[in-house]
């Protein structure tokens, strides 16, 4: 019995995203075709590889978890063999820094697509606050970093501009009097700084009700009604909801998502990854402003607290 490479590739995308729709989009096929591929794979294995309920992926089965390990090795060898046949194959290693909120987007699916196209490229990815990403890129601790800055701050190449909004779960209603419970990322985050600045400007009292190190932590605390938070509008999906002007909360600014290279990073693989991710971001439902080819500022004392 020989495994079908296409079925294994689709299975890995589902294992990484827990979504048939994202897998279908990534491989350029319908959800029905993706479902047929998984059924074919399970017929070959003789066991279920996914726990599903009403068409939704809940988790991998024990057999699915085992198969993931082999599937990655099979596909890596397959893609390396194919890539080695081309003289123009992209090779190299990139240390990439991204903001915590990238994991509220289709970021892992984007990376999977890039690796599928360039199997000889090695990636090390770290999520952190934008302020830390900027400073560490200046010190060349990253080859490439995406981060957020105030509009016009000129710390990198602008990919898109996003409006910040107040966000809550379905049952939370902010009180017009009293202290507002805020759900925040750790210090160094653009969302956190914008929320605190807006509250201070309006003279509103607030307190930290939850500080989380990941987007999923922040999202879960918000859904459960522990308070209000600030996110880019593009990241707000049900059951999260935008709190409009009637909530009595102060207006928020927009921020720019930018990327910058480390001082020693000038390889083709780094620039190809930067352009690929920039295109993914700009095509993810947010309008892209005109590109400005800006150099990373090396003046440490002007680094924005993002």
Summary tags:
seven-stranded mixed β-sheet, two-stranded antiparallel ribbon, LysR_HTH_N, LysR_subst-bd, D-Maltodextrin-Binding Protein, domain 2, WH_DNA-bd_sf, single chain, 306 residues, 9 helices, alpha/beta, Arc Repressor Mutant, subunit A, 3 domains
What does this molecule look like?
The protein is of the alpha/beta class and 306 residues long. It has three domains: 5-85, Arc Repressor Mutant, subunit A, CATH 1.10.10; 92-157 and 257-285, 3-Layer(aba) Sandwich (D-Maltodextrin-Binding Protein, domain 2), CATH 3.40.190; 162-255, 3-Layer(aba) Sandwich (D-Maltodextrin-Binding Protein, domain 2). The chain contains nine helices and eleven strands. It has helices at residues 5-17, 20-27, 31-45, 62-84, 107-117, 130-138, 190-202, 215-223, 268-282; strands at 50-53, 56-60, 92-99, 121-128, 144-150, 157-168, 180-184, 206-211, 229-232, 241-243, 254-261. Strands 3, 4, 5, 6, 9, 10 and 11 form a seven-stranded mixed β-sheet that branches. Strand 1 and strand 2 (56-60) form a beta hairpin. Helix 1 (5-17) crosses helix 2 (20-27), helix 1 (5-17) crosses helix 4 and helix 5 (107-117) crosses helix 9. The radius of gyration is 21 Å and the shape is globular. The relative contact order is 0.15. Mean pLDDT is 85; it is low at 286-306.
